Structures are given as structure tokens and as C-alpha cells.
Amino acid sequence: MKNALITGITGQDGSYLAELLLEKGYNVYGIMRRKSEVTYGNVEHIKEKIHFIYADMTDPISLISAMKISQPDEVYNLAAQSFVATSWDTPLGTADIDALGVTNMLEAIRIVKPEARFYQASTSEMFGLVQAIPQSETTPFYPRSPYGVAKLYGHWITKNYRESYNMYACSGILFNHESERRGKEFVTRKITDAVSRIKQNVQDHIELGNMDAKRDWGHSKDYVNAMWLMLQQETPDDYVIATNETRTVREFVEIAFRCVDIEVEWSGEGINEIGKDKATGKEIVKINPQFFRPAEVEILIGDPAKADTNLGWEREIPFAELVERMVKNDMKLVAKEIKAANL
Ligand code: NAP
Ligand code: GDD
């Protein structure tokens, strides 16, 4: 039986990865931050099966302890301040966790169990102002946010430890992946939650920022499988994980509303753009400049050919199903909320 240590286990990816590793018979250890109220986030439903260790990416001693307790064969470093917009508000905190935190984890591995295999959660955000379309492992990086810059450090330090110490250390350059467990501040979940509230008459409209931004969106469940595959190879390497499809935020909005039989009709431009419910004429989508970013990543579309060839990785959940699953789930959650409020 293998031991795995997951940082960021309470997050979206941490939860799907924990489920996958439990299914495969791993002993799963997860690091968790102390909060004023004990909550298990996305792993509430499997908390009895996980060995939790209190630690923090900014506290190297706690990571050394986590390594000693868990004695992992595989370490998945998913912990991060992962919301790009907030990285302008907390640039140093983001760097502490997303950049230096990676070195803290790598050093803890080197000290306690250097033969442990290491996965780093790198990101398509590192491509930023893209230098090629589509983006692959050989595309030069040009990050556009404090988050992207911090993650680029994490990416290179992982490669450096592989080359300096011959460690089995890989980075997955993952493009956007979403799910029913996505945090509500990210645009996809913000949209599917709002669509469900608008449909059930508990919200009038949604306010969004840049509707022209294009993203390559997949489902988290498929992407955690790629993480695992990367650590099962003979030699460590870095891989792009993506769907090779891209859509605007506006298209996501249209498809999500269509899941509840609402057709959006657009008018106006820029900050005056408005989306109306074609059947009722009600304004259901508005622009709020508050959600624009100081620097934007306009287009992401990844080429996963290397992962396909070397890992045999393929995504299983197509885009339309991703949106449908998210909307269905939020429709249920909102209905439950309404029922509870009426009781
Ligand atoms: P997420 O839902 O925001 O989860 C982040 C996790 O990190 C949470 O468990 C959080 O714990 C933990 N964390 C934050 N700061 C920490 C600290 N100082 N010490 C210990 N734990 C800390 O993110 P996700 O979507 O699952 O993404 C997982 C990883 O993949 C992240 O590194 C992200 O940057 C990267 N990534 C994500 C995507 C994507 O599209 N989802 C794409 C590329 C890369 P709390 O519960 O205590 O907050
Ligand atoms: N969050 C948000 N809220 N984004 C909006 C909004 C809004 O109201 N309106 C438009 N957008 C646009 C953003 O400007 C961005 O271009 C796009 O929607 C996606 O935003 P997010 O869903 O917040 O994700 P992200 O692409 O910035 O970052 C995610 O993907 C990265 C991989 O490329 C995160 O998961 C990162 O952690 C991850 O590394």
C-alpha cells in the first residue's frame, strides 16, 4: 500500500485527487490549515478516510513534520492562494505560499525522504500574454499577475530540484479546470450559481467583468488523473494538460443559461453590454468594471499532445457536460436553500 501526502486537500482538486487515490488503495494524508472553526471543505464527505496533519506552506517546520508523519511515496503539492484577482491584493502572501511554499515542500522532501515523488501544480496562467497559440510545453512564459509570477517560480524551482538533486519532481501545466466543487468566486461557478438563482427567482441578474476573455475549460476529475499518471512514469517530466478548445466567458454564460431554457440576447458594447432574457426582456447580465483585472490573460488554449502520447491521458468529460453538471448541481443546491429558508 502506497502513502500519499496531498497539500491543498480541502480544495477542488485536492478532493478529487483524494477520492482517486483512496480508490487505488493509497493511504491518504492531507495537510490542513488551522481555522477558527474546524471545516473540511470539499473532503467533508470522506474525512474519516483521510489522515489530516495541521501544517502550512509558509511554515517549513510544519512541512518537515508532515513528511515525517506521512512517510509518503508521492507528494502532490496543490496548496495555493489560487484566485488570480486576489493576487493583486495580497502579492506577498501569494508569493509566500505559491512560490516559496514550493521550496519549503521540496526541502522538506529532501530532508526527510528524497526518494518521494513530487507533483507541482503549475498553471497555464504562466503563459499570460501568450507567445504562441496553442500553448505547449515549449511555449515561452509571460505571466500577467502576481499569481502567475509566483507560480512561475514554483515551476522553475521544481525543475531545478529535479536537475540539481536528481529528484523525481514533475510539474503539470494545467489549464483551467472546473467542477461542481469550484469556489464561487471563479467565473464558471459564479455563472452557474447565478443562473440557478435567476431561474429560481432569488436573484435578478449577474455582474461580470471581461466577457471576451477566452479559456480552455476541462473538468477537475479528468485533470487529477493526469497528476497521478505523471508520478507513475519511469522518468519525471513536465506536461501540459488541456482540452485544446477555447471559449469566451460570454459563450459560457450563454450555454449555462441554455441549460435552464433561457436564451440570452446581447446588446450594447464594452461596459454597456447587456444580456436580456429573450422571452421576458429582463436584464439578466450586466458588466461591472470592478471585475476587470489590472492586466488580463486574453486567451488560453493548450496543446495536450505530449500528455496524450506519453501518459495516455485523455479528458473524458466534454465541455457541454461540464457546464450541465455544474448547473444541475447548483440548481439543486439553490432549491435546497430556498426550501430551508421557507421552513
Ligand atoms: P483551491 O480550490 O483554491 O484549493 C486551494 C487549496 O490550498 C485549499 O485546500 C487551501 O486550503 C490550500 N491552501 C491555501 N493556502 C495554504 C497554505 N498557506 N498552507 C496550506 N494550504 C493552503 O484550488 P484548486 O482549484 O483545487 O487548485 C489546486 C492547485 O492547482 C492550486 O495550486 C492552483 O493554483 C493550481 N491550478 C489550478 C487550476 C484550476 O483551474 N483549478 C489550474 C492550474 C493550476 P483552505 O481550505 O484552508 O483555504
Ligand atoms: N472570477 C471572475 N469573476 N472572472 C471573471 C469575471 C468575474 O466576474 N468576469 C470575467 N472574468 C474573466 C477573468 O477576467 C478571466 O479572464 C476569466 O474570466 C477566468 O477567470 P477565473 O475563473 O477567475 O479564472 P482564471 O483563469 O483567472 O484562473 C484560474 O485558472 C488558472 C489556470 O489558467 C484559477 O483556477 C487559477 O488558479 C489557475 O491557475
TrEMBL record:
Residues reported to bind NADP(+): 205
One MF annotation (Gene Ontology) recorded for this entry: NADP+ binding
Q: Give the Enzyme Commission number.
A: 4.2.1.47
InterPro entries linked to this entry:
GDP_Man_deHydtase, NAD(P)-bd_dom, NAD(P)-bd_dom_sf
List, alphabetically, the Gene3D superfamilies matched.
Answer: NAD(P)-binding Rossmann-like Domain (3.40.50.720), UDP-galactose 4-epimerase, domain 1 (3.90.25.10)
Family matches, as CDD domains: GDP_MD_SDR_e
Family of this protein:
Belongs to the NAD(P)-dependent epimerase/dehydratase family. GDP-mannose 4,6-dehydratase subfamily.
Q: What is the role of the protein in this entry? A: Catalyzes the conversion of GDP-D-mannose to GDP-4-dehydro-6-deoxy-D-mannose.
- The name under which this protein is listed is GDP-mannose 4,6-dehydratase
Organism listed in the record: [Clostridium] fimetarium
> What phylogenetic lineage does the species belong to?
Bacteria, Bacillati, Bacillota, Clostridia, Lachnospirales
